[in-house]
Amino acid sequence: MKVAVVGGGIIGLTTALQLKNELRNVELTIFASDFDDTVSHVAAGLFRIGSSYSGPTEQVTREWIRDSYEYYDDIRKYVDASIAGVTSISGYLFANSSPDTVKNRWMENLVPIYRRVKDEEFRLVEGNWKYGSFFRTLITECNLHLPWAREKLNENGVKLKTMKIDSLKELASHWDLIMNCTGLGARSLCNDKYLVAMRGQVLKVKAPWVKTFFYGELDTYIIPGFNGMVTLGGSRNFDCENTKVCPHESAAISERCRGLLPGVIGKGEVVQELVGLRPHRERNVRVEAEWIFNGSSKAILVHNYGHGGYGVCTAPGTSKYAVKLAREMHKSSVAKL
User: Fold this and answer.
1) Which residues are annotated as a binding site for D-dopa?
2) Binding site: which residues?
3) 336 pLDDT exceeds 70?
4) pTM score above 0.90
5) Sorting pLDDT into bands at 50, 70 and 90, what band is 24?
6) N or C: fewer beta carbons within 10 Å in the chain?
7) 8 A C-beta contact, residue 64 and residue 314
8) Interatomic CA distance for residues 190 and 169, integer angstroms
């Protein structure tokens, strides 16, 4: 079977790895307009799923999240976990708006620790916070993880081609299975009017003394990664496609983070200011299979996109589900012959 994966970010690469794991003899090629400049590279990579995240049903959504956590947790146990950019991390979420803000229906029964903050722990940060939670989770550093994934794919004979795909339909003439992992690009490729850009801006700060993550409500976060680099955020600008760094936004992020954890800005050197466009889908994340036709040619097309700000977190789960749909459709087509 000839398989094309379209998209070179975390969704595309993880889908390709899942395909090679389950269908070892497939001839697999990944197409991407750019493998080194994706929204995945901007993400902090903390495994924290927002309560609004949604698949087609609650059962499927929980399956995606559980499978994703287990996937990354298995990598964390590898000898080369640091090369793969996956490790465990603990931290805090503080809020004033509501006690529900520090709760999380997806995470509380999944991660090894999720508890209320103790009275003395409120003093770890500035601000008179009313509510708080402490939890232990995972972090995936995409600047390490994506090169690791590409290397694994190369070792397994997968071809990576830098090439812009303008039509999924045209691929049907040459490929038996097409995995559409194009994120925001699916808006034009699939004419998906439910897909919009959710602009985000972050700062990368060199602050190796920060070992714990902190959230102040959900619009302020300090997330340490590998090599002493810390991500400060953030912003969510709905239906905004401006990819230029806004100095006023950087100043606001700095001020909020300094107000939460004094010293992270000032002592810490700002290394980068980055902008990414999250592929936000107003309906649920789209993981669906269909047939695609080009004249007398046809192929199985499986969509896997629209993860919003949770692509890094849930890529393994949706990829596993996408491959399952592909196998079921292929099996059904063979049975009819």
Assistant:
1) 221, 278, 309
2) 44-46, 182, 221, 278, 309
3) no
4) yes
5) confident
6) C
7) yes
8) 10
